[in-house]
Amino acid sequence: MSATPVTLQPRPVDPSPVDPSVDHEIQAIVAGELTTETCTTDLAAGPWTFDTRPGYGPGSSMGDVIPTGAPRQGELPAEYREAGEEELAARIVAAKATLGDRVVVLGHFYQREEVVTHADYVGDSFQLANAALEHPEAEAIVFCGVHFMAETADLLSRPEQSVILPNLAAGCSMADMADIDQVEECWEQLADVYGDMDTPDVEGLLPVIPVTYMNSSAAIKGFVGRHGGIVCTSSNARTVLEWAFARGRRVLFFPDQHLGRNTAKAMGVPLERMPMWNPRKPLGGSTEADLEDARVILWHGFCSVHRRFTVDQIAQARAEHPGVRVIVHPECPMDVVDAADEAGSTDYIRKAIAAATEPTTFAIGTEINLVQRLAAQFPQHEIFCLDPVVCPCSTMYRIHPGYLAWVLEGLVAGEVRNRIQVPSDVAVPARIALERMLAAKP
Ligand code: SF4
């Protein structure tokens, strides 16, 4: 899987007629120039405003509980906080030009436009980790995404390469919902129900195969690797579940209940055989009989960006735009996926729009930065976000051009700032889980 190369260009001074910048839209809403709604006017402030406060910051995850000990970002120097958009763009371009092949900048699909415009590659988390692999000559990989993505890039890159996350507070509320201590505790409780977890039965099947979504910490990927399990992405979840069912009676799927449920349901697993594991309840809130009968045990996690999409929004889109094609991400709740015309990964959504030969109206259920960029890239189509309220991913939003300029100018000065390094006792089994995924064939 390779990522999409993009031409390196500074942000144009005069935006194109379709401005892909969600930040510009938020600033205009807060200034009263637009009547569109935003979920919080705090989004108009610089992310450094929130670095001293607890929580994920404004946006979709602002109501989620951030774990104790989640990484914090130190104060960004004033020269970066006070610089305007054009100055920061010019400084980023200059630093990149000085560094040349010594650095590669990766931008996630959900990242703000003012950052993506400087990315050498734009893609989903796994595509971007692979893009890093294509640059063994780069001393530094600047990952403009969230924490687990930088960890994955560190797992897949060479040890002498530094992976940098421009703002350490850019975590992921969904990944944080699967805490390694809670997962270890869950495994012990499941062992009390199923007995020996490491010895296959007479049919050669283990009681449970753990499967983790790419959107999880390296610690969880390491856990999965140690217990015969595997990683999946939203693109290959079905193939990975088939791999797991060939080796185990059941799957323990984390952190995203919705991706697990939507994928298993499409494979014919009945809903009553997919109990939820709530880590705050004994046996996850299920009975022993439920767990014995389970095919997929779903961890109680979700993405607060994709949980915002509703069946009512789809009904409204269909009423207002007859013939609209509704595509949603499989992290959306099951009723939303069922009501949509199609569900697929960010890459699926992008390719579906690119492949449409006739002018089409698309209502998209995924993060708004990607939707607005697609609307700007494909002006022959009408493309809009299903959620009318502008509410980006809180943690992607924490990466601002000020932080990107700060880490790049650090590299120019010979200083590696905000390096993300996975300890080797975690990295070795985590790589095994990733390698199993790469080897799993459809
Ligand atoms: S969109 Fe959801 S899963 Fe992706 S980084 Fe944001 S909170 Fe995490």
From TrEMBL:
Function, please?
Catalyzes the condensation of iminoaspartate with dihydroxyacetone phosphate to form quinolinate.
Residues where [4Fe-4S] cluster binds: C172, C303, C393
HAMAP family referenced in this protein's UniProt entry, alphabetically? NadA_type3
Gene Ontology MF: a single term:
transferase activity
Q: Does the keyword Plastid apply?
A: no
What is the protein name given in its UniProt record? Quinolinate synthase
Keyword terms: 4Fe-4S, Cytoplasm, Iron, Iron-sulfur, Metal-binding, Pyridine nucleotide biosynthesis, Transferase
Region: Disordered; residue ranges are: 1-20
Its needed co-factors are: [4Fe-4S] cluster
Family listed: Belongs to the quinolinate synthase family. Type 3 subfamily.
Q: Where found, per UniProt?
A: Cytoplasm
What reaction gets catalysed by this protein?
iminosuccinate + dihydroxyacetone phosphate = quinolinate + phosphate + 2 H2O + H(+)
UniProt: iminosuccinate binding residues: H108, S125, Y213, M214, N215, S234, H329, P330, E331, T346
Q: How is the cofactor bound?
A: Binds 1 [4Fe-4S] cluster per subunit.
Query: Which biological pathway?
Result: Cofactor biosynthesis; NAD(+) biosynthesis; quinolinate from iminoaspartate: step 1/1
Main EC class the enzyme belongs to: transferase
Any idea of its EC number?
2.5.1.72
- Matching InterPro entries: NadA, NadA_sf, Quinolinate_synth_A_type3
Query: By its UniProt entry, which Pfam families does this protein fall under?
Result: NadA
